């Protein structure tokens, strides 16, 4: 009876809350829709492209069909590229090599789509379809500025050293706003125009500087965008003809430049040997057949861009500023060389002082040793004195034998050393492709000296001197830092340089080589080398360590679309991995489910788990030969049961 009474009172208390939820339900729906997330699909990958997922730490390798979300960070390796498609807007983004950017904003609120990428370095060609709503946004941000467009084909490049950005517009309009407050108003860049290094001066495109910062991937992207560029520029010319901003002669000149814009870009790319005439012809054929893109491009009939006197004057000014910038860089480089030479002179003087001090020290020690020996001999009788002399002769003979043995060991090692051979020319069937890391490690092995001082006494003295410099003021600290940098740079030999290149070419997404082999290499490099025999031993240890480096194949991660865990269940949805034909699901190491049907999204549910218990769920994507293509490991714990809040009578 008490339970029924309590339940009735509890129900009465909840009635006002339920009514409020009904009244404000439409507002709740709007708030939920405000955070609707969108996605970007990887349409094409060339080379090694690494992805750091939002809120993730581990880097995974990009693959075709992979879905990217807001917060993901992308980086392309040398000779790599990426083509992205935003499905709901049909925007296309082509990313060249050595580019790093993040997906900062990718959402939809009240049917208004917002897309923003932030670039730190590299270059991108963006093909943005006309935005449907006035509040739709497509932006690309850089360390120095933000580009806002409304349906445009344009290029953005970011200098990794300065953070300055350059913008070229093929069609449409780009509004460039500086990120730093007080640095100037926003600048509009129109078709065929270019904004260099955030200068604020917009001029007709300098084809040489534009193509210099492009690779063939972006040239291909421009060709793929040609139909859209031509269509958008035709509309632009039509709007100018209806308005009164330009006269007929100016419009005709601009129209001619826009009609020949892509052709001039391609011709400049051929002239700079970024791409060949034959490659262009193959590319056009591929675009027409594979992508059903039709356009005419007769490079022989392409007219050069026509510049006004004002544009020519501004172009000359920009080129002059570029020359002054290069001259300033050269002067700075010469100052660094002069500083380096001054430091070298100081080091030479220091080394001479150290040599003289060492000679004086040895002379004093030798004189003291002889004096002590003479005093000892005077105190000894004839028999003990003769015994001491015999002992000294034996020690001198033993020292001479050790030196001769070390010399013989050195000569033998040099005689047995293999002579490095030049690589043979590749045949028509080159066989398995050798990775950059393997090639660089092979260079390491070929350049390991058989027996020689990897570092001279002079270079070590340079380090000692640099570390011993005073640093009582900021200027002295800067001077000491530069001296240390120069001294360390002077220690690099051929093997060190090649090892550095080899290590830098290892992808950062996973352990490419086993930890024990790297530890073996580190231990070999740290070995003592105070005499010839130790140097030979160290050289052999380095060669063995390099030879035994074992590569681990990279396995990508499956993309989890949805994951939920309750008191007795787990539900997980994941996207199909390209070329996978079978999926296996393991729970705490035991196979619990197998999928052999290819679908876009796979669902797995287990609702018979124990509450409050830890589990390990692993999903493997396999090909027809049962090779693991990708996997995903999920460590989770089911929730504890919710206790009954209704009090017992």
Structure write-up:
- The chain has 16 helices and 26 strands.
- It is α+β, with helices and mostly antiparallel strands and 649 residues long.
- The chain has an 18-stranded mixed sheet that branches. The protein has a 5-stranded mixed sheet with strand order 19-26-25-22-23, with no helix packed on it.
- Helix 5 runs antiparallel to helix 6 (248-259) and helix 11 runs antiparallel to helix 14 (494-504).
| Strands, count | 26
- What number is the mean pLDDT? 76
Distance between the termini: 9 Å
Outline type? extended
How much beta, percentage-wise? 15-25%
- Stretches with pLDDT under 50, minimum 5 residues: 1-35, 416-435, 507-511, 642-649
State Rg. Answer: 36 Å
Structural class: alpha+beta
Helix tally?
16
Most strands sheet: 18 strands, mixed
- Secondary structure: helix percent: 40-55%
Please sum up the structure shown.
This protein is α+β, with helices and mostly antiparallel strands and 649 residues long. The protein is built from 16 helices and 26 strands.
List keywords for this structure.
5-stranded mixed beta sheet; 26 strands; alpha+beta; 18-stranded mixed beta sheet; 23% strand; 16 helices; 649 residues; disordered C terminus; disordered N terminus
Topology:
Layout: H1 2-23, H2 25-34, E1 36-37, E2 40-46, E3 49-52, E4 59-61, E5 67-68, E6 73-76, E7 81-86, E8 91-95, E9 100-109, E10 112-127, E11 137-141, E12 145-149, E13 153-158, E14 165-171, E15 174-178, E16 187-189, E17 193-195, E18 202-204, H3 207-212, H4 216-224, H5 226-242, H6 248-259, H7 261-271, H8 277-290, H9 309-379, H10 382-416, H11 436-447, H12 457-467, H13 474-489, H14 494-504, H15 515-525, H16 532-547, E19 556-557, E20 560-565, E21 570-575, E22 582-587, E23 590-595, E24 601-606, E25 614-622, E26 628-637
Parallel strand pairs: 10-11, 19-26
Antiparallel strand pairs: 1-9, 2-5, 2-7, 3-4, 3-6, 6-9, 7-8, 8-10, 9-10, 10-13, 11-12, 12-15, 13-14, 14-17, 15-16, 17-18, 20-21, 21-24, 22-23, 22-25, 25-26
């Amino acid at each position: 009876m008490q339970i029924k009474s309590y339940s009735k009172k509890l129900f009465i208390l909840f009635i006002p809350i339920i009514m409020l939820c009904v009244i404000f339900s439409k507002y709740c729906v709007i708030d939920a829709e405000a955070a609707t997330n969108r996605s970007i699909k990887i349409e094409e990958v060339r080379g090694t492209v690494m992805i750091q997922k939002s809120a993730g730490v581990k880097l995974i390798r990009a693959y075709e069909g992979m879905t990217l979300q807001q917060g993901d960070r992308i980086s392309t390796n040398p000779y790599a590229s990426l083509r992205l498609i935003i499905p709901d807007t049909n925007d296309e983004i082509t990313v060249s090599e050595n580019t790093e950017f993040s997906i900062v904003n990718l959402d939809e609120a009240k049917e208004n789509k917002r897309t923003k990428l932030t670039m730190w370095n590299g270059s991108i060609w963006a093909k943005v379809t006309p935005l449907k709503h006035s509040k739709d946004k497509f932006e690309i941000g850089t360390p120095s500025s933000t580009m806002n467009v409304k349906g445009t084909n344009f290029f953005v490049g970011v200098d990794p050293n300065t953070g300055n950005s350059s913008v070229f517009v093929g069609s449409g309009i780009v509004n460039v706003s500086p990120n730093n407050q007080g640095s100037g108003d926003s600048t509009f860049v129109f078709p065929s125009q270019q904004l260099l290094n955030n200068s604020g001066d917009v001029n007709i495109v300098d084809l040489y500087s534009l193509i210099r910062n492009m690779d063939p991937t972006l040239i291909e992207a421009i060709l793929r965008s040609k139909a859209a560029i031509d269509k958008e520029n035709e509309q632009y010319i039509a709007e100018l003809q209806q308005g009164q901003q330009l006269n007929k002669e100016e419009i005709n000149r601009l129209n001619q430049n826009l009609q020949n814009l892509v052709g001039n870009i391609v011709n400049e790319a051929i002239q700079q040997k970024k791409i060949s005439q034959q490659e262009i012809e193959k590319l056009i054929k591929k675009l027409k057949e594979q992508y059903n893109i039709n356009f005419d491009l007769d490079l022989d009939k392409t007219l050069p861009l026509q510049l006004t006197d004002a544009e020519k004057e501004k172009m000359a000014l920009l080129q002059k500023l570029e020359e002054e910038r290069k001259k300033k860089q050269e002067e700075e480089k010469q100052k660094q060389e002069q500083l380096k030479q001054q430091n070298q002179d100081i080091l030479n003087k220091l080394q001479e002082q150290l040599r003289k001090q060492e000679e004086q020290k040895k002379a004093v020690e030798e004189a003291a040793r002889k004096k002590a020996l003479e005093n000892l001999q005077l105190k000894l009788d004839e028999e003990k004195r003769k015994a001491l002399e015999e002992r000294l002769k034996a020690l001198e003979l033993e020292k001479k034998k050790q030196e001769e043995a070390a010399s013989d060991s050195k000569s033998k090692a040099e005689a047995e050393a293999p002579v490095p051979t030049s690589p043979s020319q590749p045949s028509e069937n080159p066989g398995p492709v050798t990775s950059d890391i393997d090639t660089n490690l092979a260079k390491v092995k070929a350049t390991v000296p058989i027996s020689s001082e990897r570092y001279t006494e002079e270079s070590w003295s340079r380090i000692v001197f640099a570390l011993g410099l005073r640093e009582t003021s900021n200027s002295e600290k800067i001077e000491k830092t530069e001296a240390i940098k120069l001294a360390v740079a002077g220690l690099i030999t051929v093997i060190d340089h090649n090892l550095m290149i080899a290590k830098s070419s290892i992808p950062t997404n996973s352990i490419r080589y086993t930890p024990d082999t790297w530890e073996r290499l580190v231990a070999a490099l740290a070995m003592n080398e105070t005499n010839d025999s130790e140097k030979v031993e160290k050289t052999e240890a380095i060669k063995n360590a390099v030879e035994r480096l074992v590569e681990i194949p990279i396995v990508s991660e499956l993309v989890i679309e949805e994951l939920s865990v309750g008191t007795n269940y787990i539900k997980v949805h994941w996207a199909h991995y390209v070329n996978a034909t079978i999926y296996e699901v393991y729970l705490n190491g035991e196979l619990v489910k197998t999928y052999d049907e290819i679908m876009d999204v796979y669902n797995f549910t287990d609702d018979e788990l124990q509450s409050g218990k830890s589990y390990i769920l692993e999903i493997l994507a396999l090909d027809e030969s049962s090779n693991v293509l990708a996997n995903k490991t999920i460590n989770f714990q089911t929730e504890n049961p919710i206790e009954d809040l209704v009090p017992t009578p």
